[in-house]
Amino acid sequence: xxxxxxxxxxxxxxxxxxxxxxxxxxxxxxxxxxxxxxxxxxxxxxxxxxxxxxxxxxxxxxxxxxxxxxxxxxxxxxxxxxxxxxxxxxxxxxxxxxxxxxxxxxxxxxxxxxxxxxxxxxxxxxxxxxxxxxxxxxxxxxxxxxxxxxxxxxxxxxxxxxxxxxxxxxxxxxxxxxxxxxxxxxxxxxxxxxxxxxxxxxxxxxxxxxxxxxxxxxxxxxxxxxxxxxxxxxxxxxxxxxxxxxxxxxxxxxxxxxxxxxxxxxxxxxxxxxxxxxxxxxxxxxxxxxxxxxxxxxxxxxxxxxxxxxxxxxxxxxxxxxxxxxxxxxxxxxxxxxxxxxxxxxxxxxxxxxxxxxxxxxxxxxxxxxxxxxxxxxxxxxxxxxxxxxxxxxxxxxxxxxxxxxxxxxxxxxxxxxxxxxxxxxxxxxxxx
Length: 433
Hints:
By secondary structure, the chain is of the alpha/beta class. It has three domains: 2-135 and 302-332, 3-Layer(aba) Sandwich (Rossmann fold), CATH 3.40.50.720; 137-298, Dihydrodipicolinate Reductase, domain 2; 344-428, 2-Layer Sandwich (Alpha-Beta Plaits). 37% of the residues lie in helices and 24% in strands. It is built from 16 helices and 17 strands. The termini are far apart.
């Protein structure tokens, strides 16, 4: 028997409670474990959540969860940093296991939380913190434990993926698509965390730590959102054989780890480029297993609740044993690693540039000359339309180049009198090695 208390009765809290109450028999029959939902603490316990909660479970008093000696596992589902962090640390110091979906908290404050768990010989389950119902945390901790991870690529924000999919399929512009996503409930009233890549960076921080045994290093993740992507760029990408996705990237490179989040052009034959709408996917390449892809719903009450309950069952079955989550706690709580994080200026990538250039002789030669001076080689050029004496889009695709050189070249190009606006840059994960 394992007794559970939930803090937070919102979307994910409701899904978790519903699964625990309605599927208790399935869990018991499949695992032999009886899970009892003892308490749910929330400020609002009167609103109808669409299912019946037995009398005596709901409370507005957080102490009935955190200080209850009968509760073995505390599930934190309120989100944010405070008071969530305070509640978790209090529960850990009471020797209670924790399950959480709070990626922002783990990415930024996780070292302290995991250290407290390690010191108190209890577990922290966090499957639901990344990609909703997709069991990517379990895959990295267990299924791929014998692999060196060469690369990890993730589409792990449903809001951005929905927006980019709509823009691709319908030729719509970003602002119009964002408004539609907000109407449908796919985007928050304040969508900053999603569209600026912050939410994706939180999740990448967790995945990178698990994949490479490095400390949680959110502050070292390069972050760039999708607000500057236009229907025109998506059209050019299609013509070149690519789709644009907000991609989380972690990979080993020259003895260091790259961690970056940005819009990325992906060849349209790649399987991950076909992940559309609000769905998520994570591609992991291991040295032993090769390429693997994990796909499913990245958010929602029941998919995320499913991941929360999976952690509850996992901890319940392994209570008192050395569980996979506890084995990685020392890595997640450490402050330093022998593997450095690569500076963004040192990465090598292929690039897409869209210049706003004057339609006159010699412009391309000036631009290509500056690119050449910075060791940037051109692989393709597109110029659409003619506007003699006016500005036209000039698209250039490059071979693999060093980011620092690219930034220097673009600064010089944007200063040219024949270039009328700041150059649009999108990094490319190419077929080219």
